[in-house]
Protein backbone atom coordinates (compact mmCIF):
# COMPACT_ATOMS: atom_id res chain seq x y z
CA UNK A 1 0.00 0.00 0.00
CA UNK A 2 2.85 2.33 0.90
CA UNK A 3 4.31 2.20 -2.62
CA UNK A 4 0.93 3.11 -4.12
CA UNK A 5 0.66 6.22 -2.00
CA UNK A 6 4.26 7.16 -2.80
CA UNK A 7 3.53 6.92 -6.53
CA UNK A 8 0.32 8.90 -6.07
CA UNK A 9 2.19 11.56 -4.09
CA UNK A 10 4.95 11.78 -6.69
CA UNK A 11 2.27 12.01 -9.37
CA UNK A 12 0.49 14.76 -7.51
CA UNK A 13 3.44 16.94 -6.56
CA UNK A 14 5.34 16.95 -9.85
CA UNK A 15 2.28 16.54 -12.09
CA UNK A 16 2.27 20.00 -13.58
CA UNK A 17 5.92 19.62 -14.75
CA UNK A 18 5.13 16.41 -16.57
CA UNK A 19 4.20 17.04 -20.22
CA UNK A 20 1.49 14.31 -20.09
CA UNK A 21 2.56 12.82 -23.41
CA UNK A 22 2.31 9.07 -23.93
CA UNK A 23 5.49 7.12 -23.05
CA UNK A 24 8.33 7.55 -25.58
CA UNK A 25 6.64 10.63 -27.15
CA UNK A 26 9.04 13.39 -26.19
CA UNK A 27 8.16 16.47 -28.30
CA UNK A 28 5.23 18.70 -29.15
CA UNK A 29 4.73 20.82 -32.29
CA UNK A 30 3.27 24.34 -32.39
CA UNK A 31 0.83 24.28 -35.32
CA UNK A 32 0.67 28.09 -35.36
CA UNK A 33 -2.64 29.47 -36.68
CA UNK A 34 -3.80 26.07 -38.02
CA UNK A 35 -7.53 25.38 -38.19
CA UNK A 36 -8.90 22.76 -35.80
CA UNK A 37 -10.07 20.50 -38.63
CA UNK A 38 -6.58 20.51 -40.16
CA UNK A 39 -4.99 19.72 -36.79
CA UNK A 40 -7.33 16.73 -36.32
CA UNK A 41 -6.31 15.40 -39.75
CA UNK A 42 -2.60 15.99 -39.06
CA UNK A 43 -2.83 14.10 -35.72
CA UNK A 44 -4.27 11.05 -37.49
CA UNK A 45 -2.29 11.05 -40.75
CA UNK A 46 1.14 12.33 -39.59
CA UNK A 47 1.75 13.20 -35.93
CA UNK A 48 0.65 9.89 -34.39
CA UNK A 49 2.47 7.65 -36.93
CA UNK A 50 5.67 9.72 -36.45
CA UNK A 51 5.67 9.79 -32.65
CA UNK A 52 4.79 13.44 -31.92
CA UNK A 53 3.50 13.73 -28.34
CA UNK A 54 1.20 16.69 -28.83
CA UNK A 55 0.23 19.97 -30.45
CA UNK A 56 0.35 23.52 -29.10
CA UNK A 57 -2.58 25.31 -30.68
CA UNK A 58 -3.19 29.04 -31.16
CA UNK A 59 -5.49 30.74 -28.61
CA UNK A 60 -8.95 29.13 -29.04
CA UNK A 61 -10.95 31.88 -27.30
CA UNK A 62 -12.81 34.75 -28.96
CA UNK A 63 -10.53 37.61 -30.01
CA UNK A 64 -11.00 41.11 -31.37
CA UNK A 65 -11.05 41.50 -35.17
CA UNK A 66 -8.48 44.10 -36.17
CA UNK A 67 -8.80 45.73 -39.58
CA UNK A 68 -5.77 48.03 -39.51
CA UNK A 69 -3.61 46.21 -40.29
CA UNK A 70 -5.83 43.52 -41.82
CA UNK A 71 -6.32 40.70 -39.29
CA UNK A 72 -2.72 40.45 -38.01
CA UNK A 73 -1.73 37.14 -36.39
CA UNK A 74 -1.50 39.01 -33.09
CA UNK A 75 -5.18 39.85 -32.95
CA UNK A 76 -5.53 36.40 -31.34
CA UNK A 77 -3.63 37.76 -28.32
CA UNK A 78 -6.41 40.30 -27.69
CA UNK A 79 -9.27 38.36 -26.01
CA UNK A 80 -12.90 39.53 -26.03
CA UNK A 81 -14.34 36.47 -24.25
CA UNK A 82 -13.64 32.81 -23.39
CA UNK A 83 -16.09 31.49 -26.00
CA UNK A 84 -14.45 28.88 -28.20
CA UNK A 85 -14.72 30.50 -31.57
CA UNK A 86 -11.89 31.97 -33.62
CA UNK A 87 -10.69 31.83 -37.21
CA UNK A 88 -9.38 28.34 -36.41
CA UNK A 89 -12.87 27.05 -35.78
CA UNK A 90 -15.87 26.81 -33.44
CA UNK A 91 -16.48 24.75 -30.30
CA UNK A 92 -17.79 21.73 -32.23
CA UNK A 93 -14.66 21.65 -34.37
CA UNK A 94 -12.51 22.19 -31.26
CA UNK A 95 -14.12 19.23 -29.46
CA UNK A 96 -13.71 17.08 -32.58
CA UNK A 97 -10.00 17.98 -32.83
CA UNK A 98 -9.24 17.21 -29.17
CA UNK A 99 -11.18 13.91 -29.31
CA UNK A 100 -9.59 12.68 -32.55
CA UNK A 101 -6.07 13.71 -31.54
CA UNK A 102 -6.39 12.15 -28.07
CA UNK A 103 -7.77 8.98 -29.64
CA UNK A 104 -4.51 8.55 -31.57
CA UNK A 105 -2.33 9.52 -28.58
CA UNK A 106 -1.50 13.09 -29.66
CA UNK A 107 -2.40 15.54 -26.90
CA UNK A 108 -3.53 19.16 -27.12
CA UNK A 109 -1.86 22.09 -25.30
CA UNK A 110 -3.75 25.37 -25.26
CA UNK A 111 -2.17 28.83 -25.56
CA UNK A 112 -3.97 30.48 -22.62
CA UNK A 113 -4.15 34.29 -22.88
CA UNK A 114 -5.28 35.13 -19.35
CA UNK A 115 -3.23 38.19 -18.32
CA UNK A 116 -5.33 40.66 -20.28
CA UNK A 117 -8.18 41.37 -22.63
CA UNK A 118 -7.91 43.43 -25.85
CA UNK A 119 -5.94 46.62 -26.43
CA UNK A 120 -7.25 49.83 -24.87
CA UNK A 121 -7.61 51.26 -28.36
CA UNK A 122 -9.67 48.33 -29.76
CA UNK A 123 -12.85 50.42 -29.73
CA UNK A 124 -16.39 49.18 -29.06
CA UNK A 125 -18.81 46.97 -30.96
CA UNK A 126 -19.09 43.37 -32.06
CA UNK A 127 -15.96 43.16 -34.24
CA UNK A 128 -14.94 39.92 -32.53
CA UNK A 129 -14.63 36.35 -33.79
CA UNK A 130 -17.82 35.24 -32.02
CA UNK A 131 -19.66 38.52 -32.60
CA UNK A 132 -19.72 39.36 -28.89
CA UNK A 133 -20.23 43.02 -27.99
CA UNK A 134 -17.43 44.69 -25.98
CA UNK A 135 -16.27 48.21 -25.16
CA UNK A 136 -12.52 48.57 -24.57
CA UNK A 137 -12.83 52.16 -23.43
CA UNK A 138 -15.22 51.31 -20.60
CA UNK A 139 -13.57 47.91 -20.05
CA UNK A 140 -16.94 46.25 -20.61
CA UNK A 141 -16.86 42.57 -21.74
CA UNK A 142 -20.41 41.30 -21.17
CA UNK A 143 -19.66 37.92 -22.80
CA UNK A 144 -17.46 36.93 -19.82
CA UNK A 145 -18.67 39.13 -17.97
CA UNK A 146 -15.91 41.57 -16.97
CA UNK A 147 -16.46 45.22 -16.08
CA UNK A 148 -14.14 48.10 -15.09
CA UNK A 149 -13.88 46.60 -11.58
CA UNK A 150 -12.01 43.59 -12.97
CA UNK A 151 -8.94 45.41 -14.28
CA UNK A 152 -5.75 46.70 -12.61
CA UNK A 153 -6.12 50.39 -13.45
CA UNK A 154 -6.02 51.48 -9.81
CA UNK A 155 -3.04 49.18 -9.02
CA UNK A 156 -0.83 50.41 -11.87
CA UNK A 157 1.46 53.25 -10.78
CA UNK A 158 3.00 54.16 -14.17
CA UNK A 159 2.24 57.52 -15.79
CA UNK A 160 0.75 56.10 -19.02
CA UNK A 161 -0.93 53.06 -17.48
CA UNK A 162 1.34 50.92 -19.68
CA UNK A 163 4.48 49.06 -18.58
CA UNK A 164 7.26 51.65 -18.91
CA UNK A 165 10.04 50.09 -16.84
CA UNK A 166 10.82 46.36 -16.80
CA UNK A 167 12.95 46.92 -13.72
CA UNK A 168 9.84 47.86 -11.73
CA UNK A 169 8.36 44.49 -10.78
CA UNK A 170 4.96 45.96 -9.86
CA UNK A 171 4.62 47.78 -13.18
CA UNK A 172 5.44 44.60 -15.10
CA UNK A 173 2.61 42.77 -13.33
CA UNK A 174 0.00 45.50 -12.71
CA UNK A 175 0.30 47.78 -15.76
CA UNK A 176 -0.72 47.22 -19.35
CA UNK A 177 1.59 45.28 -21.69
CA UNK A 178 1.52 47.41 -24.88
CA UNK A 179 -1.84 48.85 -23.75
CA UNK A 180 -3.57 45.48 -23.34
CA UNK A 181 -6.25 45.84 -20.66
CA UNK A 182 -4.67 44.23 -17.59
CA UNK A 183 -6.92 41.84 -15.64
CA UNK A 184 -7.12 42.06 -11.83
CA UNK A 185 -5.90 38.53 -11.16
CA UNK A 186 -5.78 39.38 -7.45
CA UNK A 187 -9.58 39.18 -7.41
CA UNK A 188 -11.23 35.83 -6.79
CA UNK A 189 -14.00 36.75 -9.24
CA UNK A 190 -11.49 37.14 -12.09
CA UNK A 191 -9.55 34.04 -11.04
CA UNK A 192 -12.82 32.09 -11.10
CA UNK A 193 -13.80 33.24 -14.60
CA UNK A 194 -10.38 32.18 -15.89
CA UNK A 195 -10.49 28.85 -14.03
CA UNK A 196 -13.96 28.25 -15.51
CA UNK A 197 -12.49 28.76 -19.01
CA UNK A 198 -9.52 26.45 -18.40
CA UNK A 199 -11.72 23.79 -16.73
CA UNK A 200 -14.05 23.86 -19.74
CA UNK A 201 -11.00 23.02 -21.89
CA UNK A 202 -9.94 20.31 -19.43
CA UNK A 203 -13.43 18.74 -19.60
CA UNK A 204 -13.09 18.62 -23.40
CA UNK A 205 -9.79 16.72 -22.99
CA UNK A 206 -6.79 19.05 -23.27
CA UNK A 207 -3.49 17.97 -21.60
CA UNK A 208 -2.07 21.31 -20.51
CA UNK A 209 -1.51 25.02 -21.05
CA UNK A 210 1.03 27.55 -22.31
CA UNK A 211 0.48 30.49 -19.94
CA UNK A 212 0.89 33.54 -22.21
CA UNK A 213 2.66 36.62 -20.75
CA UNK A 214 3.22 34.86 -17.41
CA UNK A 215 5.90 37.45 -16.53
CA UNK A 216 3.05 39.96 -16.32
CA UNK A 217 1.17 38.06 -13.62
CA UNK A 218 2.14 37.61 -9.98
CA UNK A 219 3.25 33.96 -9.55
CA UNK A 220 0.89 33.58 -6.60
CA UNK A 221 -2.06 34.80 -8.69
CA UNK A 222 -1.24 32.20 -11.34
CA UNK A 223 -0.99 29.59 -8.57
CA UNK A 224 -4.41 30.60 -7.22
CA UNK A 225 -5.91 29.98 -10.65
CA UNK A 226 -4.09 26.65 -11.13
CA UNK A 227 -5.32 25.51 -7.70
CA UNK A 228 -8.88 25.82 -9.06
CA UNK A 229 -8.19 23.49 -11.98
CA UNK A 230 -9.59 19.97 -12.28
CA UNK A 231 -7.50 16.89 -12.96
CA UNK A 232 -7.38 15.90 -16.61
CA UNK A 233 -10.27 14.03 -18.25
CA UNK A 234 -10.08 10.40 -17.12
CA UNK A 235 -11.29 9.27 -20.55
CA UNK A 236 -7.73 9.77 -21.80
CA UNK A 237 -5.54 10.38 -18.72
CA UNK A 238 -4.85 8.40 -15.51
CA UNK A 239 -6.96 9.55 -12.55
CA UNK A 240 -5.32 12.44 -10.67
CA UNK A 241 -3.28 13.74 -13.62
CA UNK A 242 -2.53 17.47 -13.36
CA UNK A 243 -2.48 19.67 -16.48
CA UNK A 244 1.01 20.27 -17.90
CA UNK A 245 1.90 23.94 -17.28
CA UNK A 246 4.57 25.88 -19.17
CA UNK A 247 4.75 29.60 -18.55
CA UNK A 248 5.98 32.15 -21.08
CA UNK A 249 8.57 34.08 -19.06
CA UNK A 250 11.14 35.86 -21.19
CA UNK A 251 14.26 35.96 -19.02
CA UNK A 252 17.49 36.65 -20.90
CA UNK A 253 19.02 38.01 -17.68
CA UNK A 254 19.29 41.66 -16.65
CA UNK A 255 15.73 42.02 -15.30
CA UNK A 256 14.55 41.53 -11.69
CA UNK A 257 11.90 39.00 -12.77
CA UNK A 258 13.39 35.52 -13.26
CA UNK A 259 12.09 32.30 -14.74
CA UNK A 260 12.72 30.62 -11.36
CA UNK A 261 10.10 32.91 -9.77
CA UNK A 262 7.53 30.71 -11.55
CA UNK A 263 8.87 27.19 -10.82
CA UNK A 264 6.16 26.67 -8.19
CA UNK A 265 3.52 26.69 -10.94
CA UNK A 266 5.18 24.56 -13.60
CA UNK A 267 7.86 24.76 -16.29
CA UNK A 268 8.99 27.96 -17.99
CA UNK A 269 10.04 28.78 -21.53
CA UNK A 270 13.85 29.03 -21.64
CA UNK A 271 14.46 31.81 -24.20
CA UNK A 272 18.25 31.81 -23.59
CA UNK A 273 18.27 28.41 -25.32
CA UNK A 274 17.28 29.54 -28.83
CA UNK A 275 19.21 32.81 -28.59
CA UNK A 276 22.46 31.06 -27.62
CA UNK A 277 22.04 28.09 -29.98
CA UNK A 278 21.45 30.49 -32.89
CA UNK A 279 24.63 32.40 -32.03
CA UNK A 280 26.68 29.18 -31.83
CA UNK A 281 25.37 27.67 -35.09
CA UNK A 282 25.88 31.00 -36.89
CA UNK A 283 29.40 31.11 -35.36
CA UNK A 284 28.85 34.72 -34.19
CA UNK A 285 30.79 36.47 -31.39
CA UNK A 286 33.52 33.81 -31.47
CA UNK A 287 31.05 31.10 -30.47
CA UNK A 288 31.79 27.55 -31.69
CA UNK A 289 30.07 24.18 -31.37
CA UNK A 290 32.93 22.76 -29.28
CA UNK A 291 31.58 24.99 -26.47
CA UNK A 292 28.32 22.98 -26.48
CA UNK A 293 30.02 20.24 -24.46
CA UNK A 294 28.36 21.58 -21.27
CA UNK A 295 25.11 22.69 -22.97
CA UNK A 296 22.14 23.09 -20.63
CA UNK A 297 22.45 24.17 -17.00
CA UNK A 298 26.17 24.71 -17.69
CA UNK A 299 25.16 27.67 -19.88
CA UNK A 300 23.07 29.23 -17.10
CA UNK A 301 19.73 27.82 -18.24
CA UNK A 302 16.99 26.78 -15.79
CA UNK A 303 17.09 23.13 -14.61
CA UNK A 304 16.27 20.69 -17.41
CA UNK A 305 13.06 19.47 -15.76
CA UNK A 306 11.74 23.05 -15.49
CA UNK A 307 12.55 23.96 -19.11
CA UNK A 308 10.42 24.08 -22.27
CA UNK A 309 12.89 24.60 -25.13
CA UNK A 310 12.64 25.58 -28.79
CA UNK A 311 14.86 26.90 -31.61
CA UNK A 312 12.40 29.68 -32.45
CA UNK A 313 8.83 30.58 -31.53
CA UNK A 314 5.96 32.51 -33.18
CA UNK A 315 7.23 35.81 -31.74
CA UNK A 316 10.97 35.74 -32.26
CA UNK A 317 10.82 34.15 -35.71
CA UNK A 318 9.45 37.55 -36.81
CA UNK A 319 11.27 39.93 -34.48
CA UNK A 320 8.68 40.04 -31.69
CA UNK A 321 9.52 38.91 -28.16
CA UNK A 322 13.07 37.89 -27.35
CA UNK A 323 16.17 36.51 -28.98
CA UNK A 324 17.07 39.10 -31.54
CA UNK A 325 18.78 38.43 -34.86
CA UNK A 326 20.59 35.28 -33.72
CA UNK A 327 17.32 33.31 -33.70
CA UNK A 328 17.30 30.68 -36.46
CA UNK A 329 14.07 30.14 -38.38
CA UNK A 330 12.82 28.25 -41.44
CA UNK A 331 14.10 31.16 -43.54
CA UNK A 332 17.65 29.96 -42.63
CA UNK A 333 16.74 26.36 -43.44
CA UNK A 334 20.20 24.67 -43.53
CA UNK A 335 21.33 26.12 -40.17
CA UNK A 336 17.80 25.68 -38.79
CA UNK A 337 17.91 21.93 -39.43
CA UNK A 338 21.27 21.69 -37.65
CA UNK A 339 19.95 23.60 -34.63
CA UNK A 340 16.78 21.47 -34.56
CA UNK A 341 18.88 18.30 -34.84
CA UNK A 342 21.08 19.37 -31.96
CA UNK A 343 18.09 20.32 -29.78
CA UNK A 344 16.24 17.06 -30.45
CA UNK A 345 19.32 14.88 -29.84
CA UNK A 346 20.42 16.62 -26.62
CA UNK A 347 18.73 15.50 -23.37
CA UNK A 348 18.15 19.03 -21.98
CA UNK A 349 14.57 20.27 -21.59
CA UNK A 350 11.19 19.36 -23.06
CA UNK A 351 11.27 20.14 -26.77
CA UNK A 352 8.78 22.09 -28.90
CA UNK A 353 9.08 22.14 -32.71
CA UNK A 354 7.79 25.26 -34.52
CA UNK A 355 5.51 24.90 -37.56
CA UNK A 356 4.99 28.22 -39.36
CA UNK A 357 3.31 29.94 -42.26
CA UNK A 358 5.26 31.88 -44.89
CA UNK A 359 4.65 35.63 -45.08
CA UNK A 360 5.96 38.31 -47.49
CA UNK A 361 8.91 39.56 -45.39
CA UNK A 362 9.86 43.11 -46.42
CA UNK A 363 12.81 44.76 -44.69
CA UNK A 364 13.08 48.54 -44.30
CA UNK A 365 15.98 49.86 -42.19
CA UNK A 366 16.64 46.32 -40.97
CA UNK A 367 13.06 45.74 -39.75
CA UNK A 368 10.47 43.50 -41.40
CA UNK A 369 7.51 45.84 -41.82
CA UNK A 370 5.32 42.83 -42.68
CA UNK A 371 5.92 41.15 -39.31
CA UNK A 372 2.20 41.58 -38.55
CA UNK A 373 0.91 39.55 -41.54
CA UNK A 374 -1.56 36.86 -40.49
CA UNK A 375 -1.99 33.26 -41.67
CA UNK A 376 -2.66 32.36 -45.31
CA UNK A 377 -6.29 33.38 -45.79
CA UNK A 378 -9.03 33.84 -48.37
CA UNK A 379 -10.64 37.11 -49.38
CA UNK A 380 -13.37 36.62 -46.75
CA UNK A 381 -10.72 36.37 -44.00
CA UNK A 382 -11.11 32.61 -43.51
CA UNK A 383 -7.82 30.78 -42.94
CA UNK A 384 -6.73 28.60 -45.86
CA UNK A 385 -6.71 24.79 -45.38
CA UNK A 386 -3.39 22.97 -45.02
CA UNK A 387 -3.01 21.08 -48.30
CA UNK A 388 -0.55 18.19 -48.51
CA UNK A 389 1.57 17.78 -51.65
CA UNK A 390 2.60 14.45 -53.21
CA UNK A 391 6.09 14.88 -51.72
CA UNK A 392 4.49 15.19 -48.21
CA UNK A 393 5.27 18.92 -47.97
CA UNK A 394 2.45 21.40 -47.31
CA UNK A 395 0.88 23.82 -49.75
CA UNK A 396 -0.98 27.12 -49.37
CA UNK A 397 2.16 28.75 -47.82
CA UNK A 398 2.15 26.50 -44.74
CA UNK A 399 5.85 25.76 -44.05
CA UNK A 400 5.33 22.52 -42.07
CA UNK A 401 8.88 22.38 -40.67
CA UNK A 402 7.69 19.42 -38.59
CA UNK A 403 7.31 17.46 -41.84
CA UNK A 404 10.86 18.18 -43.05
CA UNK A 405 12.51 14.70 -43.12
CA UNK A 406 15.50 15.85 -41.03
CA UNK A 407 13.25 17.31 -38.30
CA UNK A 408 10.61 14.56 -38.31
CA UNK A 409 13.36 11.91 -38.07
CA UNK A 410 15.00 13.73 -35.16
CA UNK A 411 11.66 13.80 -33.32
CA UNK A 412 11.72 10.00 -33.70
CA UNK A 413 15.43 9.92 -32.68
CA UNK A 414 14.52 11.71 -29.42
CA UNK A 415 11.85 9.11 -28.71
CA UNK A 416 14.25 6.21 -29.39
CA UNK A 417 16.97 7.55 -27.05
CA UNK A 418 14.57 8.77 -24.33
CA UNK A 419 16.09 8.20 -20.88
CA UNK A 420 19.59 7.49 -22.25
CA UNK A 421 22.50 9.58 -20.89
CA UNK A 422 24.48 12.19 -22.81
CA UNK A 423 27.66 10.28 -23.72
CA UNK A 424 30.78 9.94 -25.92
CA UNK A 425 31.22 13.68 -26.56
CA UNK A 426 33.88 14.40 -29.21
CA UNK A 427 34.97 17.67 -30.77
CA UNK A 428 37.84 18.99 -32.88
CA UNK A 429 38.18 22.16 -30.81
CA UNK A 430 36.22 24.03 -33.44
CA UNK A 431 32.85 23.29 -35.05
CA UNK A 432 33.05 19.56 -35.60
CA UNK A 433 31.30 17.85 -32.68
CA UNK A 434 29.57 14.57 -31.87
CA UNK A 435 27.79 12.92 -28.99
CA UNK A 436 25.72 9.85 -28.22
CA UNK A 437 22.76 8.93 -26.07
CA UNK A 438 23.86 5.76 -24.27
CA UNK A 439 23.87 2.82 -26.64
CA UNK A 440 20.76 3.96 -28.53
CA UNK A 441 21.74 6.91 -30.71
CA UNK A 442 24.60 9.06 -32.01
CA UNK A 443 24.88 12.38 -33.90
CA UNK A 444 27.82 14.20 -35.49
CA UNK A 445 28.11 17.71 -37.03
CA UNK A 446 30.56 19.44 -39.36
CA UNK A 447 29.95 23.19 -39.10
CA UNK A 448 33.57 24.08 -40.01
CA UNK A 449 34.53 25.42 -43.43
CA UNK A 450 36.59 22.31 -44.24
CA UNK A 451 35.73 18.67 -44.87
CA UNK A 452 35.62 16.16 -42.05
CA UNK A 453 36.82 12.53 -42.09
CA UNK A 454 37.13 11.04 -38.61
CA UNK A 455 36.87 7.82 -36.63
CA UNK A 456 34.96 8.26 -33.36
CA UNK A 457 33.43 6.14 -30.60
CA UNK A 458 29.63 5.94 -31.05
CA UNK A 459 28.77 3.73 -28.08
CA UNK A 460 26.41 1.79 -30.39
CA UNK A 461 26.24 -1.94 -31.04
CA UNK A 462 28.01 -3.15 -34.20
CA UNK A 463 26.01 -3.02 -37.39
CA UNK A 464 24.96 -1.02 -40.43
CA UNK A 465 22.91 2.09 -39.65
CA UNK A 466 20.87 4.36 -41.90
CA UNK A 467 21.63 8.08 -41.55
CA UNK A 468 18.23 9.60 -40.72
CA UNK A 469 19.29 13.06 -41.93
CA UNK A 470 20.25 12.32 -45.56
CA UNK A 471 17.56 9.66 -45.73
CA UNK A 472 15.93 6.97 -43.63
CA UNK A 473 15.39 3.24 -43.31
CA UNK A 474 12.70 2.05 -45.74
CA UNK A 475 11.93 -1.64 -46.54
CA UNK A 476 15.13 -2.58 -44.70
CA UNK A 477 17.22 -0.37 -47.00
CA UNK A 478 18.84 3.03 -46.38
CA UNK A 479 17.54 5.75 -48.70
CA UNK A 480 20.51 7.98 -47.68
CA UNK A 481 24.02 7.42 -46.29
CA UNK A 482 24.97 4.28 -44.39
CA UNK A 483 27.24 4.10 -41.32
CA UNK A 484 29.14 0.95 -40.36
CA UNK A 485 29.73 0.62 -36.61
CA UNK A 486 32.42 -1.98 -35.75
CA UNK A 487 32.47 -4.32 -32.78
CA UNK A 488 34.30 -1.78 -30.59
CA UNK A 489 31.68 0.91 -31.31
CA UNK A 490 34.00 2.91 -33.59
CA UNK A 491 32.78 4.31 -36.90
CA UNK A 492 34.10 6.50 -39.71
CA UNK A 493 32.21 9.70 -40.56
CA UNK A 494 32.92 11.82 -43.64
CA UNK A 495 31.02 15.10 -43.97
CA UNK A 496 32.02 17.48 -46.78
CA UNK A 497 31.11 21.14 -46.46
CA UNK A 498 29.01 21.11 -49.66
CA UNK A 499 26.47 18.47 -48.61
CA UNK A 500 22.81 19.42 -48.22
CA UNK A 501 22.92 18.91 -44.44
CA UNK A 502 26.35 18.74 -42.76
CA UNK A 503 25.34 16.37 -39.97
CA UNK A 504 24.63 12.63 -39.56
CA UNK A 505 22.38 10.93 -37.01
CA UNK A 506 21.95 7.19 -36.38
CA UNK A 507 19.94 5.18 -33.88
CA UNK A 508 19.11 1.56 -33.10
CA UNK A 509 15.68 1.68 -34.79
CA UNK A 510 17.32 2.75 -38.07
CA UNK A 511 19.70 -0.21 -38.10
CA UNK A 512 19.65 -2.78 -40.93
C1 LIG B 1 0.80 49.62 -29.73
C2 LIG B 1 1.98 50.24 -29.00
C3 LIG B 1 1.60 50.51 -27.57
C4 LIG B 1 0.39 51.43 -27.56
C5 LIG B 1 -0.76 50.71 -28.28
C6 LIG B 1 -2.00 51.52 -28.28
O1 LIG B 1 3.07 49.30 -29.00
O2 LIG B 1 2.69 51.12 -26.88
O3 LIG B 1 0.03 51.73 -26.24
O4 LIG B 1 -0.38 50.42 -29.63
O5 LIG B 1 -1.84 52.62 -29.15
C7 LIG B 1 -0.17 44.59 -30.78
C8 LIG B 1 0.70 45.56 -31.61
C9 LIG B 1 1.22 46.66 -30.70
C10 LIG B 1 0.04 47.38 -30.06
C11 LIG B 1 -0.80 46.34 -29.28
C12 LIG B 1 -2.04 46.96 -28.64
O6 LIG B 1 1.81 44.83 -32.14
O7 LIG B 1 1.99 47.57 -31.48
O8 LIG B 1 0.53 48.35 -29.12
O9 LIG B 1 -1.24 45.29 -30.15
O10 LIG B 1 -2.85 47.51 -29.64
C13 LIG B 1 1.49 39.79 -29.51
C14 LIG B 1 2.40 40.68 -30.35
C15 LIG B 1 2.26 42.13 -29.98
C16 LIG B 1 0.80 42.51 -30.07
C17 LIG B 1 0.05 41.65 -29.02
C18 LIG B 1 -1.42 42.01 -28.92
O11 LIG B 1 3.75 40.28 -30.15
O12 LIG B 1 3.01 42.92 -30.89
O13 LIG B 1 0.62 43.92 -29.79
O14 LIG B 1 0.14 40.30 -29.44
O15 LIG B 1 -2.07 41.91 -30.16
C19 LIG B 1 6.98 40.86 -23.97
C20 LIG B 1 6.14 40.00 -23.03
C21 LIG B 1 5.80 38.66 -23.65
C22 LIG B 1 5.17 38.86 -25.02
C23 LIG B 1 6.18 39.65 -25.88
C24 LIG B 1 5.64 39.88 -27.28
O16 LIG B 1 6.84 39.77 -21.82
O17 LIG B 1 4.86 37.97 -22.82
O18 LIG B 1 6.42 40.90 -25.27
N1 LIG B 1 4.83 37.56 -25.64
C25 LIG B 1 3.45 37.10 -25.53
C26 LIG B 1 2.99 36.43 -26.82
C27 LIG B 1 2.87 37.50 -27.92
C28 LIG B 1 1.75 38.46 -27.56
C29 LIG B 1 1.65 38.70 -26.11
C30 LIG B 1 2.45 38.14 -25.20
C31 LIG B 1 0.48 39.51 -25.67
O19 LIG B 1 3.91 35.45 -27.20
O20 LIG B 1 2.62 36.91 -29.18
O21 LIG B 1 2.02 39.71 -28.21
O22 LIG B 1 -0.56 38.56 -25.45
O23 LIG B 1 8.27 40.35 -24.03
CA1 LIG C 1 -0.81 41.78 -15.52
Automatic annotation (TrEMBL):
**Pfam families this protein is in?**
Alpha-amylase, Alpha-amylase_C
Q: Which Gene3D superfamilies match?
A: Glycosidases, Golgi alpha-mannosidase II
Q: Which reaction does it catalyse?
A: Endohydrolysis of (1->4)-alpha-D-glucosidic linkages in polysaccharides containing three or more (1->4)-alpha-linked D-glucose units
**BP GO terms, sorted:** carbohydrate metabolic process
Q: Which InterPro entries match?
A: A-amylase/branching_C, A-amylase_C, Alpha_amylase, GH, GH13_cat_dom, Glyco_hydro_b
Give residue ranges for domain Alpha-amylase C-terminal. Answer: 423-511
Entry-linked SMART domains:
Aamy (SM00642), Aamy_C (SM00632)
Please identify the protein, giving its name as recorded: Alpha-amylase
